[in-house]
Specification:
The protein is α+β, with helices and mostly antiparallel strands. The chain has 27 helices and seven strands. Among the domains are: about 1-35, no CATH class; about 275-370, Tetratricopeptide repeat domain (Serine Threonine Protein Phosphatase 5, Tetratricopeptide repeat); about 375-455; about 475-655, Heat Shock Protein 90, CATH 3.30.565.10. The chain has helices at about 1-10, 15-35, 40-50, 55-65, 70-85, 85-105, 105-125, 125-145, 145-160, 170-190, 190-210, 210-230, 230-250, 250-270, 270-290, 290-310, 310-330, 330-350, 350-370, 370-410, 415-455, 460-475, 475-495, 505-520, 550-560, 595-600, 610-625; strands spanning about 500-505, 525-535, 545, 570-575, 580-590, 630-640, 645-655. Helix 10 (about 170-190) packs parallel to helix 12 (about 210-230) and helix 11 (about 190-210) packs antiparallel against helix 12 (about 210-230).
């Protein structure tokens, strides 16, 4: 009776532990038994490969393609190749395993396998697989938003590939993968035209190779650049072209990527029902593939579509699923995006605490995704890569020059000497011109980054959030939500405007009004800020450099009015100037520049104002595209008794 109870009582811990152990042993025995059994067709293929030992990707892939998605078979192939030191086969198998782990967002395992493949390729002295492995490492790092590492691997792969005099088809394909990766880096830097140039260059090479998968990938990337530029119809055309190629090669993953992109454009065009009709079956297909990166993005797109349709329950369900996958697999960009939409929903539902929590998470991961130092480092690497490439071209030209010199000594032909000298000079002038362009591009990028830092300095951000926090602590929900909305809108407008060379005056005025509203909290709403526009000026058609007025308003606040007692006024006036100019004046009734300088010297903590100098440099760059130059005039205001009653700044800007 005791024995019977021991084996029939489901709650007996001894019973559970013993039988779980027995079941585990049985399961392992079965798995080990199955692991020994390989399909006969696979074994024959492997035996043939091990005997012939081809060294190129194309030759190995031609034999083993039907089995390469089976991880168990690829592990077996890798082991057999390792046993006989067939390094090319081992590198092929390890890279295929890495791709499978990458496709299900198991990035650490994928990196380990691709790195092992790279080491094996170097041991076997197989340059084609070394280049292939470097490109695979780059793709995984790009999926993880590790832009610096991704570019390092792409650059190393491209340098190796271009060093081969007569490249094989496999190396040519790797060159295209590298070009595609560098194009993606330009896209991340928001240099969309440069990115499109890289993708189109790759398209030409892929077309020569007849590689429809490469054609599909490049059309997809070009579509993404068009979409980010706001060219939605051009983006749709590129996505549909990519989808057609994916249909031809029957790529399930390619179809999912293209359909998700098409739906994203429909959302931007407010074609919400069409977007949902595409996304729901595409989500099922993505789940079947198992690519967590794609699945997370589709959930977020679907959630956004339902949010815009005011179906908040479905929106929350999809966004939370997308966020969960992104957090589990460390996808910062998707974490930020999903959190921002969830914050918007919580705000609509009146749950301001939850909205603020989601908003903080979104900002935190947005900073991780678009890290300023990261972008600057990548920009420097791109410049260095282009300069090094030109130096390599000079080295090649010099080598050719030596060959021609030998021919000239034999033929004694002055005409060839003169012709070569002309070609050499043209090459040098072209290189010098390109270096000059690169220097200017780098200076412009640095200037724009400096401008963004001055707009989004940490003191302003944290002081503004602390002011809003005070409303929350005081349970003043109305003001907290009001200023939180203004603050989030200001941050969004600054980030959007920072990527544009010029914007309309209407957009600029909206941004500075938001800025003054936020700053006024810290002045206990004592600042009387007004905007006056003369008749006949269409602020929607006038173009000015983005974020150009804020530094002057900041100076008026902190140097003119912060130490003043009594009424505090700032007036911003837009008026027509002489000929093709427009005048923008900012006048305050502060203490004046002389008094402000005295007060500044007496302060222990001094605010260093660099925004004005950056603004003048940006105005100089802006004026180069116009017939006339700009002018900035600072006027001290005095009353009848010659007493300082404020400062006035006048920006004299060209419109043609």
């Amino acid at each position: 009776m005791r024995i019977q109870n021991l084996f029939t009582n489901d709650h007996n811990p001894y019973f559970l532990g013993k039988w779980k152990f027995i079941f585990l042993l049985a399961f392992l025995y079965i798995q080990i038994g199955h692991a020994q059994i390989l399909p006969e067709s696979f074994e024959k293929t492997i035996d043939s490969l091990l005997k012939s030992a081809p060294s190129t990707y194309a030759d190995i892939d031609a034999s083993i393609r039907p089995f390469k998605k089976d991880t168990a078979l690829m592990r077996a192939f890798a082991q057999k190749a390792s046993d006989i030191k067939y390094y090319s086969g081992q590198a092929y198998a390890l890279n295929q395993l890495g791709r499978r782990y990458r496709d299900i967002s198991q990035f650490p395992q994928a990196l380990r396998l691709h790195q092992e493949a790279l080491d094996v390729s170097k041991t076997g002295n197989n340059l084609e697989f070394e280049i292939f492995s470097l490109n695979m490492l780059s793709v995984v790092h790009r999926r993880m938003d590790a832009i610096k590492s991704a570019l390092d691997y792409n650059q190393e792969a491209l340098t190796l590939a271009e060093s081969v005099i007569n490249p094989s088809e496999g190396i040519k394909r790797s060159i295209n993968v590298s070009l595609n990766g560098i194009g993606n880096i330009y896209q991340t830097l928001e240099q969309y035209d440069l990115a499109i140039d890289q993708f189109r260059r790759s398209l030409i090479l892929e077309n020569e190779l007849g590689n429809k998968l490469g054609l599909a990938i490049n059309h997809q990337n070009i579509g993404e650049c068009f979409e980010l530029q706001g060219k939605l119809e051009e983006a749709l055309q590129s996505y549909r072209t990519s989808l057609a190629y994916n249909e031809e090669i029957n790529s399930d993953k390619g179809r999912v990527i293209c359909k998700n992109s098409i739906a994203h454009v429909y959302i931007e065009q407010n074609k919400l029902n069409q977007a949902v009709e595409i996304l729901e079956p595409t989500l099922l297909a993505s789940l079947e593939i198992g690519d967590q990166y794609l699945t997370s993005g589709i959930y977020i797109n679907l959630g956004r579509a339902y949010l815009l349709k005011d179906n908040l329950n479905k929106a929350i369900t999809n966004l939370e699923k997308g966020l969960g996958i992104a957090e589990k697999h460390l996808i910062p960009s998707n974490i930020s995006l999903a959190s921002m939409y969830l914050s918007e929903i919580a705000e609509k539902q009146g749950n301001y605490k939850k909205a603020f929590a989601h908003y903080k998470l979104a900002v935190e991961y947005e900073e991780k995704t678009v890290n300023e130092r990261n972008l600057r480092y990548v920009g420097d690497l791109i410049s260095r890569y282009n300069i090094e490439k030109k130096n390599n071209e000079i080295a090649i030209i010099n080598k050719d020059y030596e060959i021609v010199k030998l021919k000239l000594r034999k033929n004694q032909t002055r005409l060839l000497i003169g012709g070569f000298a002309l070609i050499l000079l043209s090459g040098i002038f072209y290189i010098l011109y390109r270096q000059y362009q690169l220097k200017n591009d780098k200076k412009l990028l640095t200037l724009e980054q400096s401008m963004l830092r001055s707009q989004m300095n940490p003191h302003f951000l944290f002081n503004s959030l602390n002011s809003i926090k005070l409303y929350i602590i005081n349970n003043d929900k109305k003001n907290a939500v009001h200023y939180l909305n203004k603050f989030s809108k200001l941050v969004r407008k600054i980030l959007e405007a920072s990527s544009l060379k010029e914007i309309s005056l209407a957009d600029e005025l909206e941004t500075v009004e938001l800025y003054m509203n936020i700053e006024n909290i810290r002045f206990s709403n004592e600042i009387n800020f007004s905007i006056k526009i003369d008749e006949g000026i269409d602020i929607h058609t006038v173009k000015i450099p983005s974020l150009i007025l804020q530094p002057f308003l900041e100076n008026a606040l902190w140097h003119g009015l912060s130490s003043k007692e009594g009424e505090k006024n700032i007036e911003l006036r837009i008026s027509k100037g002489d000929h093709d100019f427009i005048d923008i004046s900012i006048a305050d009734n502060g203490v004046g520049r002389d008094a402000a300088e005295v007060i500044k010297k007496s302060k222990v903590l001094k605010r260093k104002s660099v925004g004005i100098e950056i603004t003048k440099e940006r105005l100089a760059n802006f004026a180069r595209d116009y017939q006339n130059t700009f002018d900035v005039t600072i006027i001290d205001l005095f009353d009848d008794m010659k007493k300082a009653i404020g400062t006035k700044v006048v920006l004299h800007l060209p419109t043609t």
